Amino acid sequence: MRLTAEVAALETLPDDGEAKVMLTEQVEATVAKYKQTCLREDTFHRNGAGLGLGIVLGGGGIGLGTWAAIQGGSTLWWWVLAVPAIVLGVPGFFHEWTGGDSRDVAQSSDAAATATPSD
Prior knowledge:
With 119 residues, this protein is mainly α. The chain has 5 helices and no strands. The protein has helices at residues 2-12, 18-42, 48-71, 79-97, 100-114. Helix 1 packs antiparallel against helix 2 and helix 3 (48-71) packs antiparallel against helix 4. It is rod-shaped.
């Protein structure tokens, strides 16, 4: 919406004004940023096996922990298996859901592209 509003405002300004030059530069910067964001997001890939493993580990750990809590007594030792499964499964699922390692690679390449060389 921002880009649309800027382009609409750009069309209403007189051609010889300083405001049009400044707004044109702003529109070009916005388009460049949008293009960079789209290119980076196009490289994201979700790993189906990682998502499935996160669901199995996290869901299984939550189910096992719930069962152990309801049963009480000596079944509370099942938490020894449930807690690590939850701790590994839930964050692993969301890590893959948001792009996983492909997101990390894109961020590191963005940082390298925007870094200025040292003297």
